[in-house]
Amino acid sequence: MVKTWRGAPAADGYRMPGEFDAHAGTWMLWPARTDTWRLGAKPAQEAFRRVALAIASFEPVTIGVNGSGFEHVRRIMPGAVRVVELSSNDAWMRDIGPTFVRNDTTGEVRGIDWGFNAWGGLNGGLYFPWDQDQLVKQKVLEIEGKDRYDARDFVMEGGAIAVDGEGTLLATEQCLLHPNRNPRLSRTEIESRLARSLGVRRIVWIKRGLADDETDGHIDELAAFAAPGIVLLAWTDDPDHPQYEIVREAEAALEAQPDASGRRLRLERIPLPDPIELTASDCRTIDRAAQSFGRKPGTRIAASYVNFYYCNGGLIVPAFGDRRDREALARFSALFPDRKVVQVYTREIAFGGGNVHCITQQVPDGGRG
């Protein structure tokens, strides 16, 4: 029987493991929102399908689908991919789904059910309503049979944090301290809440995320842990690139702050693709809706290879049809010789405001340690 807890996970002996640790499986959602995704969401669905198949070659995958799409998705997915009926307002499982924590003594895994307000609520949020999104975490935990920590009083998105599994968390001030998330909490109170929830002892703050990021600067477009003490940082040497100053600002912040073990972080730079802009043709095929984020010709999209996904023995990396796709693939392959690096064309996912990491959520393996 799944139980609901209202205490602090860390006080119960739980912590969030690094994403590079072993997984029991991966959760995704199926895109269908036609005011986010162009051409009735069909190109995005094909990109999601390719990502799911890539992950499924390494570990179990579950896809949640709104009821009307279940039969279609079940038919186009192999039997190894579990398809379940699961209502949602959109398909960003990283932010809508639960954050899993593990007890290293018992090996038990539980999930945190954070509050969610569509990246800003009525003060800059990306769509309304988000009522079905708010229920996804609890539904996933019920299906997985994992106990649930009720943390809905604290607005948090999985893409806003990165942890090393040893007490260090990366985040941007732009996102976690934004007044449209938890306006009544101070920086110290937010730090305390993260420590009590995730078992972290040190938060390494970066001032802001990538320019043109609809989510108010999520860390998962900018930086990720490769291992404890090693951070992958999105990078460009082109002074005309819109991210040029931002990545240097992030570099300085990461070099100035030690991790929870007192180590100086080692930075590995990952090239950024060229900026992506929506064309008039793209925008003509996106439905107009008063309660969703407007997309018009010239809207620039935050795109980054750092928005990748770890899976058991593998790494799923975005491709954009960009001149730096090959360079990024070679860079990841060199950095992770013990993993098979698979590059998937995900430009359509970028059009919606995220990428591979944003549409996935790992369930940690219950093994101890």
TrEMBL record:
<dbReference type="GO" id="GO:0047632">
    <property type="term" value="F:agmatine deiminase activity"/>
</dbReference>
<keyword id="KW-0378">Hydrolase</keyword>
<dbReference type="Pfam" id="PF04371">
    <property type="entry name" value="PAD_porph"/>
</dbReference>
<protein>
    <recommendedName>
        <fullName>Putative agmatine deiminase</fullName>
        <ecNumber>3.5.3.12</ecNumber>
    </recommendedName>
</protein>
<comment type="similarity">
    <text>Belongs to the agmatine deiminase family.</text>
</comment>
<dbReference type="InterPro" id="IPR017754">
    <property type="entry name" value="Agmatine_deiminase"/>
</dbReference>
<feature type="active site" description="Amidino-cysteine intermediate">
    <location>
        <position position="358"/>
    </location>
</feature>
<dbReference type="InterPro" id="IPR007466">
    <property type="entry name" value="Peptidyl-Arg-deiminase_porph"/>
</dbReference>
